[in-house]
């Protein structure tokens, strides 16, 4: 039988520790796993459009229209269609006496509140009669979409 010396024990022990350490290092760097993330899509919220009253119209007059638009979304939107209709309760005055010219191209609206002035956008027809002192209500219909 062969004799076991201190040197042999030391070499065998060192080899075992080195092999064990390298296996532990390899196992330390190797891993597997799985993660699940939940997400939800935002919904577009309708924008709010408010206008200031237009006073002092007379046949042939053109007045500016002040518009405030509030976009509550965290992203920009585009107003791509807008139409205006005028009505009056005056007996001898037609709602067509007033016209409102809105932009014919899309309007990009950033998040938050913005003010715009549409120059000479409200007009009273030159040939109207019977509208003196009449009050008009202009309704604006608009639609848009996400611009992000």
Automatic annotation (TrEMBL):
Signal peptide (UniProt feature, chain positions): 1-27
Record keywords, A-Z: Signal
UniProt name for this protein: Uncharacterized protein
